[in-house]
Write a structure and sequence with these properties.
Blueprint lengths: L3 H16 L24 H4 L7 E2 L7 E3 L4 E5 L6 E4 L4 E4 L3 E6 L5 E12 L5 E2 L6 E9 L6 E11 L8 H6 L12 E3 L5 H9 L3 E6 L10 E6 L3 E3 L1 H11 L19
Bound molecules: zinc ion.
The site of zinc ion has 4 residues, from strand 7.
Length: 263
């Protein structure tokens, strides 16, 4: 007879398999979320020393608190943007802007907003707790080998009670069901990017030196995770999940502790 513990274990394992459905490889590299550790994706995903995402436990070495006024998001409103299915993730392109950090020396480091995209569920977690979704605003400077990236990540849940859904996220994903197939694109309505930037900056962020969370898992990525939580309409979350399925890498545990970058 099976013990209660074993039965519970089997139930959890079955759930684990179901929630990590295989997704077709994405252009530019193999991303198979049936291995959410990413180790089998090859390259730096398997051998990197500073891989994202991570679990943001309190007081973790290498993870710094960034004061609200040390970081500036300048994002510009747009009348329309385009969404594209890039394989596992929905990307939003069009909005322009920048992310700057003020260094102790007084100098500023600035990256230009390139695009943003979504993961369901969230990739980063706080003390082991994930959210329903995570958005990554990818900023970069330079190109080729000299590329430097700064990603602002924000955790997202479905709004309930008095929680207000965010206009940009709902609008960006409004037509998600129309881009179910790879490379399909659609136009969005107006995105109030400046208001979203202000909302995210209303609270401090955590930061660490990490990597892209998808193949090729390039390192030299300055990750910022805002302490602001964002919300979407429950229907938006449902549609996003229907299109992207499970497209979140697990927090990495096999790499050394993250190291913080100098301000
Ligand atoms: Zn991402």
């Amino acid at each position: 007879m099976l013990s209660k513990t074993l039965l519970a274990f089997l139930a959890i394992s079955a759930q684990h398999v179901l929630s990590h459905a295989i997704i077709s490889p994405r252009a530019g590299g193999p991303i198979d979320y049936s291995d959410p550790s990413g180790k089998s994706w090859g390259g730096l995903c398997a051998t990197g020393q500073h891989q994202s995402p991570i679990d943001l436990a309190k007081g973790m070495d290498g993870v710094l608190d960034v004061e609200r006024n040390a970081i500036t998001l300048k994002w510009e409103d747009v009348n329309s943007a385009s969404i594209e299915n890039h394989g596992p993730a929905i990307y939003v392109k069009g909005p322009k802007g920048s992310l700057s950090i003020k260094k102790k020396s007084g100098d500023a480091l600035t990256w230009a907003l390139d695009s943003f995209h979504f993961h369901t569920p969230s990739e980063h977690s706080f003390d082991g707790k994930k959210s329903e979704m995570e958005v990554h605003f990818v900023h970069q400077t330079g190109s080729g080998k000299d590329v430097s990236r700064a990603v602002m990540g924000v955790l997202i849940d479905a709004a309930s009670g008095s929680q207000k859904p965010n206009q940009v996220l709902d609008m960006a994903l409004e037509k998600a069901l129309l881009v179910k197939k790879m490379h399909q694109t659609e136009k969005t309505g107006a995105l109030k990017m400046a208001e979203l930037a202000a909302t995210i900056q209303a609270q401090a962020s955590l930061t660490y030196e990490g990597s892209l969370t998808t193949h090729p898992c390039d390192e030299n990525v300055r990750f910022f995770i805002s302490k602001t939580k964002l919300y979407v309409k429950p229907e938006t979350l449902k549609n996003a999940k229907e299109v992207m399925k499970y497209n979140a890498r697990d927090p990495t545990t096999w790499t050394p502790k993250p190291y913080s970058f100098e301000f």
